[in-house]
Write a structure and sequence with these properties.
With 126 residues, the protein is mainly beta. It has one domain. It is 0% helix and 47% strand. The chain has strands spanning 5-13, 19-28, 31-34, 37-41, 51-55, 59-60, 68-72, 82-86, 91-92, 98-99, 101-105, 117-121. The protein has a 4-stranded antiparallel beta sheet with strand order 1-2-3-6, with no helix packed on it. The chain has a two-stranded antiparallel ribbon with strand order 4-5. The radius of gyration is 17 Å and the shape is flat.
Length: 126
């Protein structure tokens, strides 16, 4: 089964001949896609906490959906952690917007190996 997808590729080149490509999907199976921003502070463990911020992966608009997300925490106490997961379902807001709850545990890292818990809600649909 084929699913029609539309979008564009952005090429960021530089003078040394190296470049990268980023794919931006604008519709999935005929429906526009959207993303959400998210940010927060992890739990306080082993004497410190970390901040994090990111943007979810795209998902279709107007249908039940979730978003994948991944980001790295701030550098604190000599290390960072990776945050990765899937949001909960869309929670409607007045006016037609929505948000998603998310929560999880970071990767293990640090001089004293440990992880942090995190939770929050995404911003409105971008």
């Amino acid at each position: 089964m084929e699913i029609p997808i539309t979008g564009f590729v952005h090429c960021s080149g530089n003078s040394d001949g190296q470049h990268s490509h980023k794919l931006y999907i604008t519709s999935w199976n005929g429906r526009p896609v959207h993303v959400h921003s998210f940010s927060g502070v992890t739990s306080f463990d082993v004497g410190h906490a970390h901040k994090y911020a990111g943007v979810t992966e795209p998902a279709p608009s107007g249908v039940p959906h979730v978003h994948e997300y991944i980001t790295e925490t701030t550098f604190n106490d000599g290390h960072t952690h990776l945050i990765r997961g899937t949001t909960g379902n869309a929670i409607p807001l007045p006016g037609g917007d929505h948000f998603h709850y998310f929560e999880g545990i970071t990767t293990v890292n640090g001089r004293i190996p440990h992880a942090h818990a995190y939770q929050g809600r995404t911003g409105k649909e971008d």
